[in-house]
# Entry
Amino acid sequence: MSNNSIYILAIESSCDDTSASVFHNDVPLSNVIANQSIHESYGGVVPELASRAHQKNIVPVVDQALKQANISKEQLSAIAFTKGPGLLGSLLVGGSFAKSMAMALDIPLIEVHHMQAHILSHFIKDPAQKTPEFPFLALTISGGHTQIVKVTNFFEMEIIGKTLDDAVGEAFDKCGKMLGLGYPAGPIVDKLAQEGNPKAFTFSKPKVKGLDFSFSGLKTAVLYFLQREKQKDPNFVDKNRNDICASFQKTVVDILMDKLKLAVKETGINRVAIGGGVSANSGIRQALLKAEQHLGWESYIPKFEYCLDNAAMIGIVGYHKYLEHNFADFKTVSKARYQMQ
Ligand code: KG4
Ligand code: ZN
# Structure
């Protein structure tokens, strides 16, 4: 098949979203995402339930992705899937499905690293987003990761900073839980923060050397702060929820921006991209736009649809791996913990 008519089916199933996307070269023709609302009542993702929901969703989601793209499965050039990291039971559903389908169609299988895909989501051809030139810095912020990555080309990435404990999305979710918000709390904290005063309360920032992060201290600081205030006024949270969200979010954004500024200074690279679920956050998006105006950075913010877990980001990596004939062995196994390099 010539390199100008590659069709790739991509599958993402690392956590609690079942997603399938069809690509024509670097252009997404569909990006279907089925969320699993079942976890909301448990206040977090229940792995066992997530794998079952993936198994239920995967066939209709893939079917819909092909239909929306107006492509028959016989036209596919390859199938890309998330190998890891993530919940093993969830990964196995997408991985086994991808293997079986690739085997049945006798086409190559392409394995994709979930966090690499969040970074490369900037290369999805979409009129609503711009693409960075290499090298650039990527801040990957999600429910499981917080990293600063130096990206030299599509497949050469070096992690130059990471969290020593909780991921930033986890901090949002745990703090939101303390405020009685649903799961995942990140987007709700963000929404309430926009109605609150970010200067109402002060939470101290952790002192971590170099480009690494820490969020567990902030989580504990919020917990003790709430306990103290609730002793004085049992209705403290109800009266101040928006201000607490705004102050917490400002602290998190300041922590992220301080480290990014240091990374720009140390590497001399001022092209900065964000990726992962927390890159949907309005605070970090605004801070990056401001940095573009005031610090001369080139900021790259993915389209909202490509921030949260989705198969389009798997498809773009699939396309670039296809060009290099970087195919997986059918003996490949899904990996809950999977190093980027
Ligand atoms: O990348 P993602 O969809 O899944 C993982 O790979 O973890 O990220 C999910 C995380 C959750 O912690 C969620 O609360 C957070 O991203 N998140 C947000 C926002 N939207 C999603 N956090 C803060 N503000 C948001 N707007
Ligand atoms: Zn993710």
Notes: The chain has two domains: 7-122+307-323, 130-301. DSSP finds nine helices and ten strands in the chain.
